[in-house]
Amino acid sequence: MLKQLRNMSVEILKLHCPSLNDISKVLKKRLIGNFATVEVNVTDCPNLTAPPFHLAAAGLCGSTRIVDVGGPPYLLPLPQLDKVYNIADIAKRVNLPSAFIIGAGAGPYNLVGVNSELIPNLKLDPGCPTGCSAMQSYISKVDLGDGSCIQETINSTDFSILGNFFFSEGAQGKVLEVKAKERIGEENLISCIRKALSEEYGDQPVGIGGAFLIERGKAKIHIMSDFSKEPLENDEAVDEWLKFYEMSAPLVCLTGECVSADPGMDLRVEHTHCFSQHGEGGHYHYDTTPEEVAYHGFFNVAECLYRVDRPGETHDLGRV
Fold this sequence. Notes:
Blueprint: E1 10-14, H1 20-31, E2 35-44, E3 65-70, E4 84-86, H2 87-93, E5 100-106, H3 109-112, E6 117-119, E7 121-124, E8 132-135, E9 138-142, E10 149-153, E11 158-168, E12 174-183, H4 189-201, E13 207-216, E14 218-223, H5 235-241, E15 243-248, E16 251-259, E17 270-275, E18 282-287, E19 294-301, E20 304-308
């Protein structure tokens, strides 16, 4: 087993935190131009452990923070295979050792055997023998035989290369509820939300995370192929390396990071992975059936952002 990274930089940024009521108005104004039917409300968070969300904790409240670890420069043009992390270790570094964690990342290739998409969904508890009170994470990988999607549960807190996570205490409380149906614009749900926040708050970074369900329709999803032995130097090479699929609802999508502005920290400003009960999952791009699609999500505002092990080099290939 590979040794976990120990010497990592940790940068902290206090985020701008508008009220949920203010954000709900901002989002509704922008979403109305992108979807035929829109509802945005502040509501009590339902029990998200129940179907159809199947999350590892009931809510999205308490000590909310976005945690951005590593990044695509550790993957491209060639992977840095020494970049193996542990979510429990990261949680201690960001001062929330009992965190509920959702989001998106790269799976632990040291355990999976190949590169994969990580869909983290877990509640840490240092007092439990396993370190978790609930572990409901998945990985999605490409079948090396026929190229199909393989979604599997994973009982590990390891990940590699990059991760974009929404941390909270998993408590229930007030959250944003977003419903949107029939896409009439060009933006996916999270891009539309992020751009609404960016237009309203400018260079004051606002961050949100949460979970949304694609209730009807289909979506474009990718899964990273196994690590390339040839350098991936441009967009075309990356697109050929990624495997794209059209996956069917219902899909549970976990947004680990949605930040309105990057104050020079080389952030992944939006990143969402999804899983399903029917065995499909990966990196969410957008819905492919705009007339049919229906979204229903719950989100909360992050109080702060932690940038962990920021790469020394940046890049503009943010699709992985």
